[in-house]
Amino acid sequence: MGIVLGDNQYGKAEVRVVRLDRDGERHAVTDLNVSTTLSGDLADTHLTGANDKVLATDTQKNTVFAFARDGIGEIEDFGLRLARHFVATQPSIHRARVAIERFPWARLDVGGVPAAHSFARSAEGTRLAVVHHDGERSWVTGGIRDLTVLNSTDSEFWGFPRDRYTTLAETKDRILATAVAASWRFGRTEDVDWAGAYTTARAALLTAFADTYSYSLQQTLYAMGARVLEHVPEIVEVRLSLPNKHHFLSDLSAFGLDNPDEVYYAADRPYGLIEGTVLRDDAPEPGLAWS
Ligand SMILES: O=c1[nH]c(=O)c2[nH]c(=O)[nH]c2[nH]1
């Protein structure tokens, strides 16, 4: 019986870097959580402890801050710059993955005037990017998480099987709420308007959620993914993870009160978790590119 080293990777997780862009009095905030993951010719450190091929995770962290000094720009580009740097400059490193979350700060409005240097964390969703680079090719996924949305009607759920354990009542009118987590795979990495793709994809998710008359969250999921593909040509595949944030009508009869679909209990767990992929039928193979 022999023992061998299998797949391995290492990096610095969750580097929190905040950059201010100062345009005179007017500032802009870029607030990121960056995780770098490297792999390659790293057997020695595992087998003998020789570290001559190990770019320290501390160095990886420092690189994130140093690159931020030159400006961050779109997170997909920032990730590409970092991933390519690690592979290009370290002979032992053959693959790099850089995952970035961008937390949303909205400029405050003070008496109808946009504030120069005051912001509030907003609920518009956390923007995501994951970049892979293998020395020759790069792959990029974008995405969003924590985009919480609710439809107060135009949602039904009925027609499901009833077995001896089924208690759920059929409904022709319910609240449909979810916290959207989506990631989308780009078919190319050159000449992509990352900011425009993000804005359009986010808007597509929201409008499809709002204007789809829903018979299930699964149906809404498909509509949302398809809408992104219809509006952003560079995106070839969308993966969605949608928790069904159940709202149960509160039974007020013990108090002699009726409840004409007005008072709900928002349960936080358990929750249905509806997940799916919507893609172009001619989407290229993903390569290294996912999550
Ligand atoms: O949209 C829904 N899909 C389900 O699969 C499901 N299951 C459930 O209990 N409620 C719902 N709602």
TrEMBL record:
Family of the protein in this entry: Belongs to the uricase family.
Swiss-Prot/TrEMBL catalytic activity: urate + O2 + H2O = 5-hydroxyisourate + H2O2
Coiled coil regions, renumbered to chain: none
EC numbers, comma separated: 1.7.3.3
Protein name: Uricase
Enzyme class: oxidoreductase
InterPro entries: Uricase
Keywords for the protein's UniProt record, in alphabetical order: Oxidoreductase, Purine metabolism
SUPFAM superfamilies xref list: Tetrahydrobiopterin biosynthesis enzymes-like
Annotated source species: Amycolatopsis thermalba
Summary of the function given for this chain in its UniProt record: Catalyzes the oxidation of uric acid to 5-hydroxyisourate, which is further processed to form (S)-allantoin.
Keyword Oxidoreductase found: yes
